[in-house]
Amino acid sequence: MSSDTPADAQADAAASSSASLESRITLPSATETASEPQTSTTDPEKTESTVEKAQHDGAPTEMHGSELREPEYDVDVKLSDLQADPNNPLHSVKTFEELGLERSILNGIYNMNFRSPSKIQEWALPILMHNPPANLIAQSQSGTGKTAAFTLNILHRIDLNNMAPQALILAPSRELARQIKGVVETMGQFTKGLVVTAAIPDPSRRGQKFEGQVIVGTPGTTMDMIRRKLLDPRQIKILVLDEADNMLDQQGLGDQCKRVKALLPRNIQIVLFSATFPQQVIQYATHFAPNAHQMTLKHEELTVEGIKQVFLDCNGEDDKYRVLVQLYGLMTIASSIIFVKRRDTAAEIERRLTQDGHKVAQLSGALEGPQRDEIIDRFRDGRAKVLITTNVLARGIDVQSVSIVVNYDIPETIRGEPDYETYLHRIGRTGRFGRVGVAVNFVHDQDSWQKLAKIAAFFGVESKPLPTDDWDFLEEEIKKILRSSRAGKTTKEMQMQTDGASA
Ligand SMILES: Nc1ncnc2c1ncn2[C@@H]1O[C@H](COP(=O)(O)OP(=O)(O)OP(=O)(O)O)[C@@H](O)[C@H]1O
């Protein structure tokens, strides 16, 4: 079961490059895709809850949805205010009821404390749920609820009286696949008869059939399982690629995803979601999902307002470790992720920090699956507060308590260029759904400084320098950001405040 190793290795390496993105919505012609709809039979009654199992299986330990409370800092963001602002990606006009979801599904959403949809959910759901089913390529900022958008469509469409796989969700890492499985189970906890199965490397499943209406997997294992006839693809009617630009990347997972698709029935609904879609991937994506409705964003629109970006000027590579140790206290107030380029750097930093008496966890593609599960679960439930990792966890991971992301190494492509997409995904591990967070970038030489400057210019953001020789000041600055409450302010009001301050 080593078929996911290349995928993980690929995800470990910074791979994708960037290109200009257009903000546009494209509607396809009337003669669209896909098979006949099959409405699900749902039961409003509460059935045996799968929450416990879901949470154990990788979902956030507590899915508080809109309840924005950081445990240690006094962050009291009012989500309703953010959602009332038409310029905010969390804004919506409609309610979940108006989107035509079954009562059992609505109960699942409300139980997760979701009050109203985000922009992407409000836009994508009517398209996804419309009959005949149409393909979709959709882009939305990190942490704006893309998982719910594709999950709700799946819950709406599957036939619960049939145990055969009907929806396949592919994700680039085992951690993300497990997380999505948890979300589908939690959201579908009142959906009677729902079975969700993970197709990730798991020696304990050897020879066992993959049953359940929803399969969430990594592409390599999914392909293996279909080929070995352990996963029957014949009744699959929806294929979702989460982190689709990464999944279609021709250098890495693209080939595997193409092969999986070739093993599925024709005319299924194909759904591609990501926070980033470089132009060259969009072109390929439109072949993969023909006649798709499209929503893409400009790169200037991609950064999340709640994530403040700063950089620390270190005195060379060796000095980075000293600065990291200084930061440790701040990183443990809530949870933090440290991103490095290489697996051996991750292991080395873990070793040194542990030796210096600090508690940290480390996860990279070099570790075996069960060990990885144990580490990410510890991080999710707060037993481990500082996680050192590679790009394997750059995308999709949703741990709401993450308040600091450290780019120990500025992300770069295999060609040594700044990796714009990976940067955006990495910093997007904080500031989820209206929360605030800080991205701390380490620069240590001309090259890393230039890469960061290019990244900041590309996204049209300012990366503020913080001194590394005045720790009291630095600490106060970071704490100030994390304490900053946006309660009661719309994006426009905040903009005016900033304008006023600089006038
Ligand atoms: N309508 C909603 N109301 C409140 N919370 C929501 C809503 N939709 C999603 N969330 C929460 O927002 C968080 C981020 O959602 P999700 O992980 O789906 O983001 P994403 O857009 O897929 O991000 P990424 O691009 O990083 O993968 C999750 O904790 C989720 O439970």
Automatic annotation (TrEMBL):
Record's catalysed reaction(s): ATP + H2O = ADP + phosphate + H(+)
Top class in the EC scheme: hydrolase
Location of the Helicase ATP-binding domain: 127-295
InterPro entries noted in UniProt: DEAD/DEAH_box_helicase_dom, Helicase_ATP-bd, Helicase_C-like, P-loop_NTPase, RNA-helicase_DEAD-box_CS, RNA_helicase_DEAD_Q_motif
Stretches with biased composition (Basic and acidic residues): 43-56
Sequence motif Q motif, location on chain: 94-122
Keywords: ATP-binding, Helicase, Hydrolase, Nucleotide-binding
E.C. code: 3.6.4.13
Region: Disordered, residue numbers: 1-68
UniProt biased composition (Low complexity): 1-23
Span of domain DEAD-box RNA helicase Q: 94-122
Domain (Helicase C-terminal) ranges: 326-479
Biased composition (Polar residues): 26-42
GO MF terms held by the record: hydrolase activity; RNA helicase activity
Family that this chain belongs to: Belongs to the DEAD box helicase family.
Protein name, per record: RNA helicase
Source organism (scientific name): Coniosporium apollinis
